Amino acid sequence: NQVMKGESSIYGFFQETQLQFAVEIRNDKITQASAKYNGPLSNEKKSVLDTWYQRFFVKEQPLQKPAIGE
How far apart are CA 17 and CA 27, in angstroms? Predict the structure, then answer.
């Protein structure tokens, strides 16, 4: 099991005390995401997941200096 070996992590997203969806992350990439009972994520849940992922897993690219003469 990749979670037990520390190769991936599973995060649960809750509203109050109810699980709304879960996501598995491996090597800073989403490997799977499912709503309750392995259902697909609604557009609203996808938006929440995307915002969270961008905040915690996407590395900002450093600004590149323009080449001389540009």
Answer: 29
